[in-house]
Amino acid sequence: MQKNPPHEHRRGDFEVLITAEQAWPAFERAVLKARKEIIASFRLFDFATPLLSPETLQFGETWADLISDALRRGVRVRLVVSDFDPVMATPLHAAAQKTLKQAQQIADSLGPEQAALLSVSAAMHPARAGLLPRIAFSPFVLQKLRNLPKRLRPQAASRQGLPQLHPVSQHQKIAVIDRKILYIGGLDLNRRRFDTQKHDQPAHETWADVQLMVRGPEAAEAANHLEQFQEEIALRKRPSEGKHIRRTLSVPRRGGFWALSPRTVLKEIEDDHLEAFAQARHLVYLETQYLRSSVIARGLADAARRNPDLSLILILPALPEEVAFEGSRELDARYGMALQAEALQEISTAFGTRACIASPVQPRMAARDAPSVLTGSPMIYLHSKVLITDGSFAMVGSANLNGRSMRWDTEAALRIPQKDRVRQLWHALARHWWQEDLPLEALNPATAAPWWQNEIRRNNVRRPEARRGLLVLHDQDRMSDLQQPLPGATEDIV
Asked: Which fold, 9-131+166-221?
C-alpha cells in the first residue's frame, strides 16, 4: 500500500473520496482528531489494516494502533460489524469473529478505564428464514456444511436439528466522529478494499469505490441512526423517516413460517432512486456493483419512455467478483447474472442509443484471456454505489441496485440535494474515470452521455495504452451461458 496518497476532492464541509487511497487517510485523520466519540457500523472491519496517512503513522502501523491511541485519549469507540450465517457465509462469519478477537486484544493492552471505552460487537440480523424454506433448503445447507474446511466445521456444526438460515446482513459502511463528521459510502476496511486512483494493481486487487466526508447536521442524524438501528430491526423501536440519511431496514416476520424474506419497514433508498429517475430531465448517472432489481430497471425504463430527452450513463463491473476472480459457478452467482441480464435488457430497450453502459478496465494488455479480462485488458472491479441526476440531486451510500439492498439488508446512504455538492461529486467522478479534466460538453448533463458514448466506443477499438481514460463498453452477453433464471425465486435474495 502506498503511504502518500493524492489530495482528496475537498471543498469546505464536503469531501469526495475515490478509492481507499483517498478515503482511508481522510478517515484516519478524522479519527486522530476525535475528542469524545467514534460510532460506526461496517460490514467488514479489520483492525490489522495498515495506516496510510503520515499523521497517523506517527502513532503506529495499523488501525489497532490508531484506535488504541483514541482510547488512551479518552475517546469512546463503538463499532458494530455484521455477523453472517456460519454455514452459508462461513468466510464472512470468520471475519466477524476475527474482528472481535482483535478488539479483545486491543482492550487487553489497555488499562481498565481505557478498555471500558471500547465496544465492538458482531451483530447478526434478527430475521430468520421460516420453517418451510428451512426444510426446502436443508439438503443444500447440509451439503455446504459437509464441504466446509475441517478447521471451520466444528464451529458451524454445533447447531442441533434443522439448520437455521440467516438471510439478512448489516451492509452499511458508516462512521460518525464527535457527532460532527460523517464518513459514508460503499467502502469497508480491510486489505482487499485497498486500491489506488490509477487502479495499477493486479486485476484481482482492484477496488473502485466512493466515500464521502461531510461536516454538518448530517452527522448528528447519522449518529442517531447508528444508536437506534439495532433496536429498530429487532422490533423494539419504530423507525423514523430520515431527512439526510436514507435507509433500508427490514425486521423479522411475525409467524412467517412460510417466508424466506424479512419484512421491509423502510425502503427510502429505493424510493429516492425512483423519484430521482422520474424527476430527471437530461441525465441519470449510476455507478453500481450490481443492477439486478426489476423495480429499479422498470423505474429507469419508465423514465426513458416518458422523456425522450433523458440519457443514461451506467458504470458496472465487467463481471461479479466471485465469477471474475474466484471462478465461482455457484447458483446464487448465476441467478444474479440472469437477473442483471434481464434488467439491462429492459433498460437498453427503453433508452436505445441514449444509454451509455460501460465497464472500467486497466490501460494495459492482459497477459492472457480470462474471465477477468474485457476488450483485451484486465478489468477494474467496481464497488461504488452512486446516483446523480442532472446537476440537482445525488446519493452515495452502501446500497447496490439489487433487491437485497433495496429491501432486505441494513443500508445507509446520504441524500445530496445541494447543487454545489452534486457538481463537485460529478466532476470528481468524471475526472477519475477519464483521468483528465474534461471539456464542458462531457460534463453538461444535456450533452454528457453522447460524448461519453462516442469516446467509450472508440476505446473499444483502440490499443489499451492508447485509450482515453478507463472505460470500455460493457458486454452484456459476456459468459451468458452461466446465467441461470430461477422462476418463482425471490430476486431479493441476491
From this structure: Endonuclease; Chain A (3.30.870)
| 269 phi and psi angles, rounded to 5 deg | -70, -45
So what's the pLDDT on residue 198?
A: 97
CA distance 5 to 87: 39
Query: Half-sphere exposure (CA, 13 Å, Cβ side) for 146?
Result: 6
Contacts of residue 246, defined as CB under 8 A and 6 or more positions apart, other chains included, come to: 268, 269, 272, 395, 397, 412, 413, 414, 415
Quick one: pLDDT band at residue 9, thresholds 50, 70, 90? low
Is the pLDDT score of 470 beyond 50? yes
Segment 294-321, tens digit of pLDDT: 999 999 999 999 999 999 999 999 999 9
**6 pLDDT higher than 50:** no
Best CA proximity match to 319, nearest among 239, 365, 373, 281? 373
Return the closest-CA partner of residue 443 out of 484, 382, 482, 390. 390
CATH 3.30.870.10 domain range(s) in the chain = 9-131+166-221, 248-493
Question: Cell numbers at residue 65, please?
Answer: 494502533
Phi, psi (degrees; rounded to nearest 5) at 223: -60, -40
Strand partners, 389: 284, 393
Write the single-letter amino acid at 69. D
Q: How many CB atoms lie within 10 A of CB 155?
A: 15
Segment (H or E) for 24: helix 20-32
- The pLDDT tens digits of the residues spanning 248-291 come to 999 999 877 777 789 999 999 999 999 999 999 999 999 999 99
How far is Cα 71 from Cα 56, in angstroms, rounded to an integer? Answer: 14
Cα radius of gyration rounded to whole Å, the chain: 22
Q: Taking Cα atoms as reference points, which of 366, 337, 410, 356 lies closest to residue 43?
A: 410
Which grid coordinates are listed for 330? 455457484
* CA atoms in the 13 A half-sphere facing the CB of 264: 17
Q: Which of 182, 149, 213 is nearest to 7 (CA)?
A: 213
Cα 180 from Cα 79, distance rounded (Å): 17
* CATH number for the segment(s) 248-493: 3.30.870.10
CA 400, CA 45: separation in Å to the nearest integer? 19
- Nearby residues of 141 by Cβ (< 8 Å), 6 or more positions away: 87, 88, 163, 165
Query: Positive or negative CA dihedral for 200, 205, 207, 213?
Result: negative
Task: Count the alpha carbons within 13 Å of 450 in the hemisphere toward its beta carbon.
Answer: 8
Q: Distance between alpha carbon 477 and the CA centroid of its chain, in Å?
A: 24
- The answer to whether 189 and 120 are in contact (CB under 8 A) is no
Q: Considering the chain, what percentage of its residues have pLDDT values greater than 70? A: 93
